[in-house]
């Protein structure tokens, strides 16, 4: 009996320790806590963006803030985010850890979805992947966190032109006068 009670208490404590205080969802409504969202776009785009929806779990309102980490970013790109307010873009590497100002933290009510978090990446014609980690935390207990990684994958668009010249071209018969026209290009 004591073993069953001990096991039940241990399982209960383990499950409550793993409960996350916020549920994060992508724009499609999928739960993304502890995962990666990948966004593909053109390297010539001015800015790429991904929104993340946050819902507070539990029964008590909490003051929540966000911190952004550059995990692996392409030099020559820029990035910024919105949480409460939108911050200005910074160059990759200039601010590897970036926390929203305390005055911009948000009082979240349980069960109410907050849709004002947006991550932005400026590819600036640089091809490659840049990965950022966004961490939501309880300002009263900064060890109480959830996170999602966002990868912006910028790609070149089009096919590189092969610049070999045409040596000769013949079109016949000329005039065709109702016959099929033939082309010969070398």
Tell me what the structure shows.
This protein is mainly beta and 186 residues long. The protein has a single domain, classed as Immunoglobulins (Immunoglobulin-like), CATH 2.60.40.10. 9% of the residues lie in helices and 49% in strands. The protein has one helix at residues 2-18; strands at residues 22-25, 36-42, 48-56, 62-72, 78-83, 85-86, 90-91, 97-99, 106-108, 113-122, 128-138, 141-155, 169-172, 182-185. The longest helix is centred in the N-terminal third of the chain and has 17 residues, at 2-18.
The CATH homologous superfamily name equals Immunoglobulins
Q: What would CATH call the architecture?
A: Sandwich
Largest sheet: 6 strands, antiparallel
Q: What distance separates the N and C termini?
A: 90 Å
Report the order of strands and helices. HEEEEEEEEEEEEEE
In terms of structural class, how would the helical and strand content be classed? mainly beta
Number of helices: 1
Uncertain segments of ≥5 residues (pLDDT<50)?
4-18
Number of domains: 1
Question: Helix and strand layout, with pairings?
Answer:
Layout: H1 2-18, E1 22-25, E2 36-42, E3 48-56, E4 62-72, E5 78-83, E6 85-86, E7 90-91, E8 97-99, E9 106-108, E10 113-122, E11 128-138, E12 141-155, E13 169-172, E14 182-185
Parallel strand pairs: 2-12
Antiparallel strand pairs: 1-3, 3-10, 4-8, 4-9, 4-11, 5-6, 5-7, 5-10, 11-12, 13-14
